[in-house]
Write a structure and sequence with these properties.
about 45% strand; three-stranded antiparallel sheet; 11 strands; six-stranded antiparallel sheet; SH3 type barrels; single chain; mainly beta; about 0% helix
Length: about 110
Amino acid sequence: MSIRKDDIVEVITGDDAGTPQARTRARVLRVLPDKQKVVVEGINRVYRHLKPNRRNAQGGRLSKEMPISISNVLLYCSSCQRGCASAAAMPPMGVKSAIARSVARGWGC
């Protein structure tokens, strides 16, 4: 998986995607590689209804983000100013890293 915690991603499908010209960009909070899902800040919010109890006398609604499929997001490339598909690159004497396919350079170059 090329998406990591604290990366900026662009949501491409779902209720929070926005329009194709103005897609939603947000930060990745958590990555779940075994389920192929990511938790993105402010995306796919749900309400958990809490009953009143001793600790929470009033009860209420707790809002939290739920995971979305990794296929529904693209890494955001600051040079392209949009989400780009990623590929793995291995320099001759270096470490494996992710590059943007559209520009064939590292992220943010």
